[in-house]
Amino acid sequence: MADPSSYRPQPGQVPDSPGVYRFRDEHRRVIYVGKAKSLRQRLANYFQDVAGLHPRTATMVTTAASVEWTVVSTEVEALQLEYSWIKEYDPRFNVKYRDDKSYPSLAVTLNEQYPRVQVMRGPKKKGVRYFGPYAHAWAIRETVDLMLRVFPVRTCSAGVFKRSAQIGRPCLLGYIGKCSAPCVGRVTPEEHRELAEEFCDFMAGRTGAYLSRLEKEMHAAAEEMEYEKAARLRDDIGALRRAMEKNAVVLADATDADLIAVAEDELEAAVQIFHVRGGRVRGQRGWVTDKVEAVDTAGLVEHALQQLYGEEQGEAVPKEVLVPALPDDTPALIQWLAGRRGSQVSLRIPQRGDKKALMETVHRNAQQSLALHKTRRAGDLTTRSRALEEIAEALDLDGAPLRIECFDISHLQGEDVVASMVVFEDGLARKSEYRRFQIKSFEGQDDVRSMHEVVSRRFRRYLLEKSKTGEWEPQDGEDAPPEDDGRPKRFAYPPQLVVVDGGQPQVAAAQRALDELGIDDVAVCGLAKRLEEVWVPGEDDPVVLPRTSEGLYLLQRVRDEAHRFAIQYQRSKRGKRLKSSPLDDVPGLGESRKQALVKHFGSVKKLRQATIEQICEVPGIGRKTAETVAAALAGAVPAGPAVNTATGEIIEDENPAPAGASSERGTEQ
C-alpha cells in the first residue's frame, strides 16, 4: 500500500488549467482517469489526510504509485479525452456500466448496394441505421413482418441473396409479396434504396404524411373502381397502424428525447434509458454498475451520457435529454452532445407534465432493474455460500453464520419507538420468523437504550423457552409464553450472528445485553450505513470488507430489510395514532392543519398543555381556530384502557398487526 505523499506533485508543478489526469499503480497500469476544470485544485483534493477521504477514494490513492496529467484548452476537450482514455485503459476505479443483458436493435444496412433489414446486437457499425434498442427480438420481428407488406425491403442474408441471383428465382418472401426481389431484378438498386429510406423514415416517426398519402391513393382507386388496389391499400394502412400501435404514444408533441433515470444504493446503481422518437417509446435499455468511485447521482448521469453517446453520431443523439440530476459541468456536456449531434441539444430535468410523469415511469423501471439484479445475485447458492464464508472469516467466527438476525430501531422525533427483527437463514429471508417490538418510552431519542432493551427481550425469551422447567417472570410488559403444544416456540432457535443497524454504541449495547444474560455463543456486529463499515464489540476500528465482497452485500441486504420492516411498522403505528386523534372532532380543522399542530408541538399531549397564544404561533392557525382547538381538547376525555368483556380484565396493549401483513411478521410486545 503506497503512501500518497510519496508521489504527490511539488507545489506549483500542477497547472491551474483544464485537463485530464491519470493515476497509475506500481506496475504502470492506469487505475483511474478523471477530468477537471482546474487540475491544481482537483489533484490537491486527493493528497489531503487519507483518513478524511471517502473510503473508495482512499483505496484508490493508496493503490496508486504515480499521477500524471494532460492539459487541454477547454472543458469539452477534457470530456472527450477522458472518455477516450477510459475506453482505452479500462481503469479499475472508474465507474463501469455493464449491460444486464444484450439488447437487440432493428438495423437497416444503408451501407450496402441493396440495404437489408435485420435484427442486430453488439457494437454499432458505420453506415447502418439503427432503431431501438428493443427489449425483445421477437418484438422487432413482429414489427418488421407487418411493415414488409408496405415496404418490401430485402431481409435475407448475403448467402441467400447470392444464391437466388445465381438461379434466377427469388426466395419465398419474393413470391408472397414481402420482398421486392432485387436479387432477380424486379426492382432497380435505386428503387430498392428508396424503399429502404421510406422504411427508415416511417420508423423514425414520420408516419402522418405517409399514411395520408396512402389514404388518398386508396380513395382515388375506389373512385376509379379499382377495388382490388383500394383493398390492398386499405390492408397496407391497417398493417402500418398495427405496427405503430406496438409503440405506445407517451408524448403528444412528437418529441424526440432520451430519458435517463438512476436507482442506487451505497454499493450499486441501475440506469434505465427510454428512447422516445416521434412521441413514442421506440426502445429501452439498462445498465447495472458497481459504485467503484465516490460518485453521486449527478456523477452517475455524466458517466451514463458518456457511455450512451460516446460512439453515437447524428440523429442517434436526440434533441432533448431528460435526466434526474444535472452534472457539475453541464455546459461542457451540452456542447459535447451538440457536437455529436451536429445541432443544439437540450439537457435538463423535467419539472411537470407528461415528461415528468414518463420520467417517473423510467425511474420505476430502474428500481425494478436494481431489485431484479439483487434478487438474481441473492438467489445463487454458490454466491450465498461464499458470502457466509466471507462473513465468518472477517468476523473470526468458528463457522458460517447459517442463521442471522438483524435488529433496527425506528421512531419519529422520539414518538412511536419500535424495533424490528428480521431473520436470514442460509442467506435467504425467513419472513415467517420476522418479529417486531414496541419499545418503552425513554427521555429523548435513545437508540442505544432501545437496542439494549430489544436484544435483551429477544434473548430472555430464548433462554426461557430453552428451559422448559425454568421459572418465568414477566418483564417490560411481556406476555407469558404459551403452553407447550408441541409446536416450535417463536424464539426457540438462537442465531449464530446478531447484526444491528448502527455503529460502536449500538454494537456495545447489544453485546452488553447478551453478557447480562450470560450468552457467549452468539456473535455480534453492526453495519454503519454511511460508510458501510462493520463494527465488532471492543474494537476501536471497524472491519472494512472489500467493496466487491459478497459478505458485505449480504450484510447490507439484511440491514436494509430490517430497516424497511421497522419503518413499515412505525408508519402504521403513527397512522393509527393520528387517525384516532382528538383533533378529529375539532370542527373546521382540516388534515393539513392537524398535522401542522402535531408536528409543531410533538404530540397531542403537549398541544393540550399549550396556551391559546402558543397555538396561534402555528402557521395557518388563527386565534378563533386556536380557541376552538383549546376548548375541544380541554373537553376531550382520554380513552381508558380496553376491557375484556368476558373476564373484566384490563388489556395492557393489543398492538394488532397491520392489515394484510400477518403472513410476513409477528409482534412481540
Globally, the shape reads globular
Q: Which spans of ≥5 residues are poorly predicted at pLDDT below 50?
A: 469-488, 637-665
Helix content: 40-55%
Strand content: 15-25%
The computed structural class is alpha+beta
> CA-to-CA gap between the ends?
51 Å
User: Helical segment tally?
Assistant: 20
Q: How large, in whole angstroms, is the Cα Rg?
A: 33 Å
Biggest sheet architecture: 8 strands, mixed
Report mean pLDDT, rounded to a whole number.
78
Number of strands: 22
Brief write-up:
The protein is of the alpha+beta class and 669 residues long. The chain contains 20 helices and 22 strands.
Describe the structure.
This protein has 669 residues and is an alpha+beta fold. The protein contains 20 helices and 22 strands. Strands 13, 14, 15, 16, 17, 18, 19 and 22 form an eight-stranded mixed β-sheet that branches. A six-stranded mixed β-sheet has the order 4-10-9-8-11-12. A hairpin with a 3-residue loop joins strand 8 and strand 9.
Secondary-structure map:
Blueprint: E1 19-24, E2 30-36, H1 39-46, H2 55-63, E3 66-71, H3 75-89, E4 96-99, E5 105-108, E6 117-120, E7 129-131, H4 137-147, H5 158-167, H6 172-175, H7 189-203, H8 208-223, H9 227-245, E8 257-264, E9 268-277, E10 280-290, H10 297-309, E11 320-322, H11 330-341, E12 346-348, H12 353-378, H13 381-394, E13 403-412, E14 415-425, E15 428-429, E16 435-438, H14 447-466, E17 497-501, H15 504-516, E18 523-528, E19 533-535, H16 550-579, H17 591-601, H18 604-609, H19 612-616, H20 623-635, E20 642-643, E21 650-651, E22 666-668
Parallel strand pairs: 8-11, 11-12, 13-17, 16-22, 17-18
Antiparallel strand pairs: 1-2, 1-3, 4-10, 5-6, 5-7, 8-9, 9-10, 13-14, 14-15, 14-16, 18-19, 20-21
